[in-house]
Design brief:
By secondary structure, the protein is an all-alpha fold. Helix content is about 80%, strand content about 0%. It has 14 helices and no strands. Helix 1 crosses helix 12 and helix 2 packs across helix 11. The two termini are about 20 Å apart.
Amino acid sequence: MENLWMILAITYGALKGIRECMKKEALKKSSLMEILFLYMLVGFAFTIPDTKSALSIEPVFILLGFFKAVIVCTGFVLSFIAIRGLPIGFYSIMSLGQMVFTTLLGVIFLKEDFGVYNLIGLTLVVGGLVLVNLKKHGEGSKQIRLFSIAAVLGYTFLNSVSAAMDKVLTKHISPAQLQFWFMFFSVIFYGIIILVKREKVSFKSLGTNIWIPLMGFFLVFGDRLLFMANASQNSKITVMTLLMQCSVIITIILGKVVYREKDFLYRLFCAAVVICGIVVGTL
């Protein structure tokens, strides 16, 4: 199918939206670093069958896999910091700022086309982000909120860099090979942080905090779909990033149903503006 990569990107977005809510639930029972380490460890276990294939690639791609892991893992830390300090619906809309960064990287470094419809779509998304910031959400000091917003923006920028790397790397290695080295180095990255900070990690949490293994599975399955989409010659990261933002609808709905968050209709309106931008941008 010529447009299969679009379906894969949308599916990844849906899984990502569910995973964001899992993060919030997991934090109720476990510490941040314990979640991140075990989360990645479970994910890496799913990639072990690809070990032989992963060891056959050139060392330069292994090194790039290491850099990707550092970038993404740092982003994950920022995302957990942000999601702990912000309402899930507000966080999800703010995270759409990734599309702005990814568009810039796609146009400047990957030389992807950027036409009138793309510009209109991007403008609508930015408009939705501005609207959601015009209304106060939740409680907490201004300093904490600004710190949380800075964290989510840092997370979106690093995710954009990772997306650009995926598009380049999947031209040379398979999605399975890329995922193996990404998960391998991610486990090491978080393991080193835990040792340096001397944080306690209980493997019992894999049984007592069911959200951790579930997140690990969703991460591996979703990322594999995304890597497959990137491997398609027809795919563009500027368009894929638009399609993946369907995650915002899921997080806003779950924010209302699970957490009883307020301003649901307003957030839904902001999300509708963003979704209109997605539709226009993919024309």
